[in-house]
Amino acid sequence: MEFLKYFEPELTVRSPGRINIIGEHADYNMGYVLPTAIGKKITFKFQRNDSDRICHVYSMGYDTGFQIDLSVIAPSNTEWENYILGVLNEISLKTDKVRGFDCTIESRLPIGSGVSSSAALECGFAYGLNELFDLELTRMEIVELSQRAEHNYVGTKCGIMDQFASVMSKEGNVILLDCESLEFEYIPIDLAPYKILMLNTNVSHNLASGEYNTRRAECEAGVAVLKKFHPEVNSLRQATEAMVIQHRDTMGEKVFNRCLYIVQEKERVLEAVAALKVNDLQKLGNLLYDTHDGLSKLYEVSCPELDFLVDFSKTNDAVLGARLMGGGFGGCTINLVHEDAVADYLQSASRAYKERFNIELTAFEALPSEGTSIKLP
Ligand code: GAF
């Protein structure tokens, strides 16, 4: 099939990836997270076509596309298509206003690196259709339907953080999001003279999606135990460390470890926000290290490459803190590095990483940026 790759678009939408300062695997446990969008984005170009129900979506990066008949939306065997189809399916459950369109997608977001190219794909696509066909969806509806798309068409039972950050972020701020009430606060972030340096391990251990859902199930198993003794506990958000410790034997070691990490992480996010507000970057850095420790030893979502980079960072005084970021099992570490030392640090980390794993490290600076938006001509 011939696809339209280049056309004068009616609408261009830019949808960013995200970082998360702290609060990992906290969202589906109804805890707190501290994410923001970054400057790296996916660009969508849209135009309506003259068909009532035939749509074309083309990925410039994969150099391949697919056709969709709006009257038969169903999952595909190709993973990236399911992010798009899942969104179309969710939108079709809400409205019948969508008509035929052509769309091209061009990504500057490294896939599988923990900066949530998946949420950027879902949210940017949903945002674009909302504008193109006047669907009158609110930003929050876009966030929620994109999350459901991932659950229903991709199979990852993700929390709400990534979609929320992709759509709701504001330049120069992080978002303190309470994933239980969905109340949120923008917190200005100025880390000078430190920078947020992302180091990409360039590995993505393919266990990730299955293991992610397993972690979620393990947390739910912990909640089920706690609920027998504390009926008010509906999620780990309502649990305390003392409760988790008290019921350690009933939970069993693995579920206990998962729950312990989650209740400790909940406190760390609040401590990190307090530290940010008084510019105590040393404290913030130590909290990042504590989170990594928990993710690696208790939650067991790290891998040798991520552990290596975090350990390596501890040998350099210019780094205040580092941890794996995102779901885990590969992707990036987030590092708080003194601006004068970024280049040297990157050079030494790259050399050491290459020597140990024979893999090239890649890096970028993350700048807190605006969420999904229309690109004006
Ligand atoms: C992935 C998920 F999509 C998020 O919802 C979140 O749970 C994150 O992993 C871990 O914090 O990015």
From TrEMBL:
Query: E.C. number, please?
Result: 2.7.1.6
Q: Which GO terms describe its cellular component?
A: cytosol
Q: Where is the GHMP kinase N-terminal domain?
A: 82-169
Cite the InterPro entries for this sequence: Galactokinase, Galactokinase_CS, GalKase_N, GHMP_kinase_C_dom, GHMP_kinase_C_sf, GHMP_kinase_N_dom, Mevalonate/galactokinase, Ribosomal_Su5_D2-typ_SF
Q: Which Gene3D superfamilies match?
A: 3.30.230.10, GHMP kinase, C-terminal domain
Output the GO biological process annotations, alphabetical, semicolon-separated.
galactose metabolic process
Which EC main class describes this enzyme? transferase
According to the UniProt entry, its GO molecular function terms are: ATP binding; galactokinase activity; metal ion binding
Q: Which residues form the GHMP kinase C-terminal domain?
A: 273-349
Question: In which domain of life is the source organism classified?
Answer: Bacteria
Q: Which family does it belong to?
A: Belongs to the GHMP kinase family. GalK subfamily.
- Give the protein's recorded name: Galactokinase
Gene that encodes it: galK
